Amino acid sequence: MPSLDAARRRLRLADPHISVLGLLVEEEAVPDELGIAHAELRAAGIVGDDGSITGDLYPLVSTLLAPRVIVRTEITGPQGTLESGAVVGNDFVFTHEGWPGETESEYVPVGAPLLVPALARGVDLHDDILEGADLTESITSTTSALDAVMVRMEAVEGDVDTEEVAAATGAPARLVEVLAQLNCMWRMTVVWKNAHVENAEPTFTGLAVWDCGLEGYWVRELPAEPVREGEVTLESPLRVRRTHAKELWQMIADLLPDGSELG
User: Fold this and answer.
1) Spans in the chain with pLDDT lower than 70
2) Number of domains in the chain
């Protein structure tokens, strides 16, 4: 169910609820397929019987209707894939995070200077300095080998025999060792339009990271993000490089446009 925490300006909304709010703001009819979401918004007191929207929703709705920057993060782990991210408007910035097993995401306002820390927290970026770790280490393979390793490990109960998995899949043993410690994989994509270029195509930037627990963080350099549909095949090269939280923090910041690009 949708809900509103007026004291802290937090909202829990699913995608159908947002669609309904957008239609109501534009004074358009709500189709039958969104009837349940519309009723849930009324039951939560977020939307009145006359279609009016509570004033507490103005910052979020105005930002969602006219976003200047959109950040989308897909986090894939043991409980499936969750989405989080942020939306930057003219006057407000909101982050949003999903929760396993829930259809709603929590939308929270943040100050623009706090956007990078909020995005870092959303992927649980944490101190990972590993004694003796080789921060120049990289592993090369193919996407088909990666897929084969993941399928093989998901079928194994208990500890993974890295040598057996490597032999069965043709993947480098080091790749199997790293993936055996995998907590989650996350991809962060940012999109915006340059305000100073007429009819500019959207600009995309992206970052893909493996959080591998005792093996630390690994950034996927190939296939390079952002990856568009159809660009990657089973034989596409795979390259991952060990990194650390401080570098990832800067890489997240570098994904975002600076003020001059937004006008």
Assistant:
1) 128-132, 260-261, 263
2) 2
